[in-house]
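Record pair follows.
FIRST:
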Amino acid sequence: MDGSACQNPSVRAYYSDRFVLPLPEGHRFPMAKYRMLRERVIAELPGVVLSEPEPASTGQLALAHAPQYVERVCAGTLDAAEMRAIGFPWSPQMVERSRRSAGATIAACRAATLDGVAVNLAGGTHHAQHARGAGYCVFNDVAISARVMQSEAARGRRVLKVAIVDLDVHQGDGTAQILDGDASVFTLSIHAASNFPLRKQTSSLDVALPDGTADDAYLATLRDSLVAMRWRFEPQLLIYVSGADAHEGDRLGKLKLSTAGMQARDRTIFDFAEALGVPVAVTMAGGYGRDVATTVGVHFSTVQCAWQSWLRRSGRAVSAIGAIAADAPAQDASPASRIG
């Protein structure tokens, strides 16, 4: 199915923020943003139904990662240098959260093929390579999910063509490395040229932007890149690695997109997928704002845009938005009423 006709009465989103890493005081990874994002979705987007995903299985992880690497991560036997590259101290919570985050993207891809759009409220761990982690990324949920969806399609003797559009400010180097040479997957990465990682990999299409790139130049580049991808590839599933770190308020980003520019970026992706009738699964990826609430706001806007795309695909945009706004004060105030 192409995902143009929605089967579920609401857009589905998957969360894994219950699995919190025990990080040392002062660690710069913004762990709280995932809980804050989920809480804001509950409060402001009653049209989104939340579910906690199953963890990715060892077999699913091995579709994108070396089995020995998966085994060593789970057993806690990576060496000190390997853990430094990941950026987290090892813990059982790190393993479980990483598996759940990958499971959430798998679940979002499956839901998107039925409903048109679905969201992982985390994920986008695009620096993890075939046999190593890096940059706060243990398992590459994006590559894993692409391979899981393709393996499921293969059971029906179908070849599923997957496009991965990565707009995180850092290159999706792990995704590119894992999927290098696979003609059934197209990897597009638009990122800051001078940013991490220092050693870039080769995506199907890489666009490296100069520091300080702002809204107009960025959006023109994005549109041109999507057209270039479409000339070379006909996707049947799109995985969107959104990222909040191209925002001008990000500590690590080096680009200068405004809040309005980030929203226009998201609309461009959803409009593109809608025009092709292609389902889209969304991941949040990076975001390191000076104020974590700003990062959460950018991620929230992406989820909101996904919900609006789902409404358009289901033909409910005008009536549903009005009805939800009118009914919101009278709805059950319990967050658990919307968590599957």
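SECOND:
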Amino acid sequence: MSQNLGYFSQVRRFVSNNNRLSIYFAPMQDKIQRQILDAFLIALRPMAKILLRFGIGFREFSEISKTAFVDVATRDYGLRGRPTNISRVAVMTGLTRKEVRRIRAKIEKGDQSVVVKTTPLSEILHRWHAEQEFLGASGRPSVLPFSGEVGSFSSLVKRFGGDIPPGAMRTELKRVGAIEEDESGNLVVVSRTVHPEGAHEKLVAALVHAVYPLVSTVAHNVNPDRDSDSWAQMSTFSQSIRKADVPRLRRISYDRLSEMAESFDDLVMAYESLHDNDDSDIDKNTVAVGVFYFEEQDDDMKDKW
């Protein structure tokens, strides 16, 4: 079954009345609110699994949830270009004015900021795949000699690696399995991405670069006051795949999604190259395209689709 989720013609009830009860906090909520909360309950289950696995309980999650509510209510619902006042934020979020004031002070101090920066390793691999100087006639990354003024690994690192010495960059890229060195000392790219090593680093990167863009796309598409067309949000799924066929389907999906991701990477790099000589940060926008594969592993959730 294929769905274009950029458009919503109806809201389904995701939680049935069997052995799991829907959780509500106000008895007079209307039907649409109940359906939305039921759907959020489904989406929050894997979030709860992740948080508990990392030793984070409801108290910490409640605090960041309050922060998100106060931040959005303050920035998105102000009048005449001004931030929403504390009383209105309290009414919208259900928090006390004292709590809103405390959280806004914390936000203004930057205590809640999370920054996931591009690493020098990722930048070098990205430029190796994007800059004409380091590409072959086929448009693929060239095999680079280590030394040389132009078209070499050292010149690549000097241009885009900051103050990291080329030798140290080579050692690290080899360690993470992103490049290989042949008998002549030339360097060959074998991976265009560097994955975070620690489980918590993988989690942070996934939440910022995958979950956040996806949920933001949903928020954009269901916003009746949006000032642009809906964004692409599509998925396909089946509930009739035999267990013996799943490994093969998983492998094929991985191969096809990898090809798709690389094609989009090539596309955005082509647009980046149009303005290589412009170092200004003015008019620079963030755009993302994401792909994923999923298997339902929770038996209690199989009747919620």
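COMMENT: Residues 120-189 form a domain with the Arc Repressor Mutant, subunit A fold (CATH 1.10.10).
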